[in-house]
Design a protein that fits this description.
The complex is a heterodimer of chains A (216) and B (525). Chain A contains 2 helices and 11 strands, in the order βαβββββββββαβ. Chain A has 216 residues and is of the alpha/beta class. Chain A has a single domain, classed as 3 Solenoid (Pectate Lyase C-like), CATH 2.160.20.60. The N and C termini of chain A lie far apart (55 Å). By secondary structure, chain B is α/β, with parallel strands linked by helices. Among the domains of chain B are: 94 residues, Alpha-Beta Plaits, CATH 3.30.70; 273 residues, TIM Barrel (Alpha-Beta Barrel). Classes of the chains: A alpha/beta (216), B alpha/beta (525).
């Protein structure tokens, strides 16, 4: 494994080094908490961020597998189109916003506005999620093993939200539906693959009440 | 509802083909997308069945083989009843009947402060002599990102097409804009609706995807927009163009995002935007992934990184607080900043927002320029003036007020054939510009219309050149406010320009923006 020490390095230098050494081998990056936009826009490779990461980690990811061994800042995996981003600890505000595809897994808690405008990614939160998660979601899945805050799934347009715990309040344009066999089949591999301590049958399912929730 | 009820439709029944051959012609009913006409199947005569539905696009009179139709503004109604015009009355009725507010396309209606009351000061004996347009050179090129990226944008003339999305515009209109840009050496802009595949190679002047067959010289540029909806955005998308524009706002609906109605999300639009067919495509009013100026700086940093530090980063602002907003963009790392004034265009917006929100373009420019000067980056970070600029004269005035580049949006639509009926949001544009209906799109040939757009740019560039040289300048970057005078108090008050006759700025402007001192002499170039 190649190791890059980001201490005293700026974003351009660090991401430049990553691109330079990117081949079949995993790359470990340490001391990168101060960098925002670390390993953005990569279309391949396996990156392991040792310790915590800053904001916009893995933004525009288009194929890389990125793991953070501790926590991540705001906007993790922003606008990802494919690939995998795994946060072993907690992540801040806005996990998986604007994603078109790929998988984001936060094993701890995630902040407000998680999965906002998700357009096709699978976003799995092992702990609790803050307020307004799933706002304006258009496609894809949000899976929450813990509890959710206020306005959960607010103005959901399309896509599916699964939650095992409770929510403080549901947002506009939402409908709680019973799980189908198809849902259970879909949830099973997520839980198994990411070693989540849960059973698919324990989840509740939220969908959009209408596909056109807006005025006019 | 500024347009509905604002037109009188008259059919000359004697001239109508159906007068001599009942039932022979129904062209007007077929081409009118608003249901104004209907053919009486019993008599074979054409009837006007809904006067109020006419939006004044005049497609009926253009298609009428007998030249029997006239569409005239209901001006007498306007004069006799104002402010309770027929249009205002219809608006109240509509709201009372439906409980819905009104939507509008295109832009602001009616008089707002604009460039008309500014005049150009020609060069005479006391100033540098005028230059000869025919024999002498005039430097028109503008470069964006000279010191910040590997591939700066070299515009041959100081113009760009304003951002207009695929979705708001038809595919053919987007292609025409790209072809027009390629023939003029200017930039077209994806807008926020993603990239149609043809746009990238057409903008560069190529007729094929592989970019081997050059068809249009000198070739233009493509600005890729990054916005709050992030439609069709990926790393590949960002790397498809020659600049990335971070959209903060727009003139026609500042403080609001965009909303492409589900009815306009066709299969093509769905493919490009990456949203299901028929689904409303809502662009939020703000970035959910930006909560502070620091966040914006970080966003710009990773946008530069994912584009490998090759292309400039632009910002687009709506007309709000120009000084502070431009200052924030400079701090965020912009290479160019567009400011879109009150009369900027839109595909769809709430009527009240387009009509009543924002600062006129002429009043945005002085504080925007001052912010650039205060940061020491005027003419380095380029300022793009947008919003209601119709010709080379408006463009010259914007350049002399301190802009480096001028954008055409509404004027580009008009150059494509638009008759300004303010009904873009309906998706029924009879000229195929804002409609996705195949029969209407078929009326817009991208190559023919691309040529019209190139002609328009050529004419406007010549106009700017004439005015620049008669002002005694050989480079557009040497233009200044000293080359202009306001012709009324209102314009002088809004812009800080010297008032014609008085020949100095109004007292409350003096010294404010470093333009004039107490003697009326210019203190900054």
């Amino acid at each position: 494994m190649k190791v890059i020490d980001a201490k005293n390095r700026d974003l351009k230098t660090t991401n430049g080094l990553v691109k330079k050494v990117l081949d079949g081998q995993p790359i470990a990056i340490r001391n990168a908490r101060h960098l925002h936009g670390l390993v953005a826009g990569l279309n391949k490779g396996e990156l392991i961020v040792r310790g915590s990461a800053g904001d916009y980690l893995g933004a525009l990811n288009s194929g890389a597998k990125i793991t953070v061994t501790r926590n991540a800042g705001k906007y993790t995996a922003d606008n990802m189109t494919s690939g995998e981003v795994i946060i072993e600890g907690n992540a801040g505000y806005g996990v998986g916003q604007y994603c078109y595809g790929g998988v984001v897994v936060v094993k701890g808690d995630a902040g407000d506005f998680t999965a906002t405008m998700n357009k096709g990614a699978t976003i799995i939160i092992g702990g609790d999620v803050g307020s307004d998660a799933g706002t304006y979601m258009l496609k894809g899945d949000l899976v929450v093993l813990g509890n959710a805050g206020r306005n959960f799934a607010n103005y959901l347009i399309r896509g599916t939200i699964y939650i095992r715990g409770q929510w403080d309040s549901l947002g506009h344009n939402t409908r709680v539906e019973p799980l189908t066999d198809e849902d259970i089949t879909k949830l099973h591999p997520y839980i198994e693959h990411y070693s989540m301590d849960a059973k698919p049958e324990e989840f509740k399912k939220i969908v959009a009440a209408s596909e056109k929730p807006f005025y006019n | 509802m500024a347009v509905i009820g604002a037109f009188c439709v008259s059919v000359n029944r004697e001239a109508c083909i159906n007068a001599s051959m009942p039932g022979k012609c129904a062209t007007c009913a077929e081409v009118c997308p608003h249901g104004v006409y209907a053919l009486d199947v019993e008599t074979g005569m054409m009837h006007i069945v809904n006067y109020n539905a006419c939006v004044g696009c005049r497609i009926c009179s253009e298609f009428c083989p007998a030249d029997a139709i006239r569409i005239n503004p209901a001006e007498s109604e306007y004069l006799s009843r104002y402010p309770w015009t027929l249009s205002a009355i219809e608006e109240v009725h509509y709201k009372a009947q439906t409980g819905e507010y009104l939507l509008r396309g295109f832009g602001t209606v009616g008089p707002t402060p604009n460039f008309d009351m500014i005049t150009v000061v020609p060069s005479q004996i006391s100033s540098a002599a005028p230059l000869d347009k025919y024999r002498e050179e005039c430097e028109m090129e503008v470069v964006i990102g000279e010191e910040t990226c590997e591939k700066p944008l070299h515009l041959q003339v100081p113009f760009v097409w304003a951002a207009m999305s695929f979705g708001a515009l038809s595919k053919e209109a987007k292609m025409a804009l790209a072809i027009g840009a390629a023939q003029s050496g200017i930039a077209t802009n994806t807008g926020e609706g993603g990239l149609i595949p043809e746009e990238a190679w057409l903008a560069h002047g190529y007729a094929d995807k592989e970019q081997k067959r050059k068809k249009w010289d000198p070739g233009g540029f493509l600005i890729i927009q990054w916005s709050t909806g992030r439609w069709g955005v990926s790393v590949d998308y960002l790397n498809s163009g020659d600049a990335v524009e971070v959209k903060i706002g727009q003139g026609a609906k500042p403080g609001m995002g965009g909303h492409l109605l589900g009815s306009k999300v066709t299969e093509d639009v769905s493919r490009v935007r990456g949203v299901p067919v028929g689904s409303d495509a809502l662009s939020p009013c703000r970035y959910y992934d930006v909560q502070s100026l620091d966040d914006m700086k970080h966003m710009v940093a990773f946008l530069r990184d994912v584009t490998n530090y090759q292309v400039p980063i632009l910002f687009k602002l709506g007309p709000s607080r120009p000084y502070a907003d431009v200052a924030a963009c400079i701090e965020a790392g912009a290479d160019a900043i567009s400011i879109d004034g009150l009369v900027g265009g839109t595909g769809c917006s709430p009527d009240i927002v387009t009509q009543g929100v924002g600062i006129p373009t002429i009043a945005c420019l002085p504080p925007a320029v001052q912010a650039l000067k205060d940061y020491g980056v005027h003419r380095k970070v380029k300022l793009v003036a947008l919003g209601g600029i119709r010709n080379g004269l408006d463009a010259y005035k914007a350049l002399a007020m301190g802009a480096d580049i001028v954008g055409f949006g509404s004027a580009a639509e008009v150059a494509m054939g638009c008759r300004v009926c303010y009904a873009c949001q309906k998706g029924n544009c009879p000229y195929g510009i804002t409609s996705h209906r195949p029969e209407m799109r078929a009326r817009l040939d991208p190559i023919v219309v691309g040529q019209r757009l190139a002609n328009f740019i050529h004419a406007c560039a010549e106009e700017v050149k004439i005015l620049t040289m008669l002002s005694g300048h050989s480079r557009i970057k040497d233009l200044s406010t000293e080359d202009l005078r306001a012709m009324d108090l209102n314009t002088a008050a809004l812009t800080g320009l010297k008032l014609a006759g008085y020949d100095r700025a109004l007292p409350f402007w003096e010294g404010l923006f470093g333009q004039t001192n107490g003697n009326g002499h210019q203190t900054t170039p």
